[in-house]
Amino acid sequence: MSRSFIEILTEYLKDNNLTQSQFARAIGAKPSLVNDWLRGKAKPSYDNICAIAKAYDGEIEYFLGLKD
Predict the structure, then answer these.
(1) What is the tens place of the pLDDT at every residue in 28-57?
(2) Is 65 left (phi over 0), alpha (psi -120 to 50) or beta?
(3) Fewest CB atoms within 10 Å of the CB: 1, 2, 31, 41?
(4) Average pLDDT over residues 14-26
(5) DSSP reduced 3-state for 14
(6) Would you give the end-to-end CA distance of the chain in angstroms?
(7) Burial class of residue 51, CB neighbours in 10 A (0-12, 13-18, 19+)
(8) What's the burial of 37, exposed, middle or buried (CB within 10 Å: 0-12/13-18/19+)?
(9) Count of beta carbons in the 10 Å neighbourhood of residue 3
């Protein structure tokens, strides 16, 4: 069963003891954008996905729901 980006990001933040602001800062985004993702009001753009991949090298498959 596939998981939503909301579930994946929520789990990642919790497991890595990161705040939304810390995560946003690491990917060069506004904390309000990360909050919108977590609330289902928006989805990450291609550029956001690339920034996540760059900031969290090796974790992009996790964020895309391709691995646990």
Answers:
(1) 999 999 999 999 999 999 999 999 989 988
(2) left
(3) 1
(4) 96
(5) helix
(6) 12
(7) middle
(8) buried
(9) 12
Q: Is the pLDDT confidence value at 59 over 90?
A: no
Rounded distance between C-alpha atoms, residue 4 and residue 10, angstroms: 10
> Alpha-carbon distance 63 to 68, whole Å?
9
Distances (CA, A) of 35 to 1, 6, 10, 67: 25, 10, 10, 23
Tokens 């994946």 correspond to: 8
For the segment 2-17, what is each residue's pLDDT rounded down to a tens digit? Answer: 789 999 999 999 999 9
Q: What are phi and psi of 11, to 5 degrees?
A: -65, -45
Global pTM exceeds 0.90: no
